[in-house]
Amino acid sequence: MQKVQISRRAVLAGAAAVVVAFDPVNIGWLTAADATPGIRVPGLDGELLLDDASRTAVAEDYGQIVHRKPLAVLRPGSTRDIQKIVRFANEHGLEVAMRGQGHSTYGQSQAAGVVIDSSTLSTIRRVTRTYAVVDAGVQWLDLIRTTLAAGLTPPVATDYLGLSIGGTLSVGGVGGASSHHGLLVDNVLALEVVTGRGELVRCSPTVRPDLFHAVLGGLGQFAVITRATVRLIPAATTARVYHLTYPDLGSYLAAQRTAVTDGRFSYLEGQAVPAADGWSYLLEGVEYYTPPAAPDDDGLLSGLAPAGVEITEMPYFDWLNRIYDLVQQLMALKLPGPWINLFIPDESVEQYASTVLANTTPEDAGGVVLLYPVRRELIHQPFVRLPSSPVVFLMAILRAVSPPDEAATRRLIGINREQYDQAVAVGGTQYPVNAIPLTPADWRRHYGPQWQAFRTAKRRYDPKQVLTPGQGIFE
To answer: Are 416 and 338 in contact (CB under 8 A)?
Structure first.
């Protein structure tokens, strides 16, 4: 086999070196200068980085809680590189994880073996009137900028556009337009993936549908997404934003139910906001349009009975990208982020949310508390687990610990576990981007009637459990 192509940054024992082999006994990479014999490493189009800075950079994520330094970082130059590394990992007992923008919160994209940095696979391959073909490392921000030039947009966008497409599709992807179009995974037409066996497979709802539906929302357990074909729709030019305030949870939830049921807003979210005597509530509805047409303000507000109304307007792209700069600033601070994201059934949300908020100080919330509905019938991928009610509410406490404090972070992780158990007791599920300590038994309970299918897919596509160990799903 050829030697690995490696950059000048690759360092072993303090000196620049080219990796030629892997030592499975002492668990390390060998250079041509090493006398110890090892297993030859396959030739790559990209780079296999061993320097401490590269490995340290992927040993953290947005949550800044788990830090697991890998043996090496692959910056692939091609899909072939991913195949080769995954096959190599199978042969020699290594773990592999694909890392997009590192926006997970509890080490989900970390691995002790090789971390694949998807940012080098970031080409937008094609944009047509109905779909775009993109590499997994493309950020939604770059795709939307490109599609808007053609008057097109993905139907759903996450609130923060700096996420990679591959990473988002591995989890689900929820946003304000999910009330009309489901999750991002419900708007995918085809995938190219590398399975845990190292096989390159193209799949869709009609070609290898079992793998297609397993991978979308499958938490990286069966295959690494390398390319995706995502749906596009015509884009509006303008966003009219309605901020409706409510003094109590009951009236807020009633308004949210009305809005989600009749689909009056293009975008529907909302949040709990700290108030002098507890919490107030903000319904955030947005209507997308292109002048000279204009939204009917009275019609959109009819029956919602807010205590206060604020209406603003901005370009469509500016609305989608409204929090990008803020998130970038927060990321630079490296604050611990023990997030919790849950789906709560409609019939339990008022009791659950009121109990949680009554026991949550603004300091413990530490950031944003999202609370908004989606229609379950729009969400179709089997491994995205939801409560059984027709309407489910996303409740997400996006905590940030400032200043960083390990004891405070651990305390909040413990609270997350309590709140998760309380949610499960009322029929809730997790949206798995959380800092919640979970056991394999918890995961079996999470997947419920889908657990057997989930385990069967793992055995079929990643039998040696090479992929994405940071989720902690299997023993």
So the answer is: yes
- Beta-carbon contacts of 60 under 8 Å, excluding residues fewer than 6 positions away, are 66, 67, 102, 334
What is the number of other CB atoms lying within 10 angstroms of the CB of residue 187?
21
Which structure tokens are listed for 469? Answer: 């160990």
Helix 406-425 / helix 346-358 crossing angle, nearest 10 deg: 150
Counting every residue, how long is the chain?
475
Give the whole-angstrom CA distance, residue 158 versus residue 370. 13
Neighbouring residues of 104: CB distance < 8 A, sequence distance ≥ 6: 61, 62, 63, 167, 433, 470
Q: Which two tokens stand for residue 449?
A: 């009637």
Residue 26 DSSP label = T
Cβ 88 vs Cβ 68: under 8 Å: no
- Burial (CB count within 10 angstroms: exposed 0-12, middle 13-18, buried 19+), residue 310: exposed
Outline where 118-224 has alpha helix (H).
Answer: 140-148, 165-171, 178-181, 209-215
Judge whether 77 and 120 are in contact, CB under 8 Å. Answer: yes
Which are the contacts of 227, defined by CB distance < 8 A and separation ≥ 6?
A: 79, 125, 133, 134, 135, 136, 191, 192
pLDDT in tens, 441-462: 999 999 999 999 999 999 999 9
Nearest Cα neighbor of 370 from 278, 428, 283, 453 is 283
Which tens digit of pLDDT belongs to each residue from 54-72? 999 999 999 999 999 999 9
Rounded CA Rg of the chain: 23
Which tens digits make up the pLDDT trace of 70-129?
999 999 999 999 999 999 999 999 999 999 999 999 999 999 999 999 999 999 999 999
- DSSP output for 349-366: HHHHHHHHHHT--HHHH-
- Give the integer Cα–Cα distance in Å for 198 and 348: 44
DSSP assignment string, 384-441: S---SSSEEEEEEEE---SS--HHHHHHHHHHHHHHHHHHHHTT-EE-S-------HH
Q: Per the confidence metrics, is the pTM higher than 0.85?
A: yes
Cα–Cα–Cα angle for 111, 165, 116, nearest 5°?
25
* ∠ CA 459-113-118, rounded to 5°: 85
Which stretches does DSSP call E strand in 151-249? 152-153, 188-195, 200-203, 223-231, 233-234, 238-246
Position 458: which residue type?
Answer: K
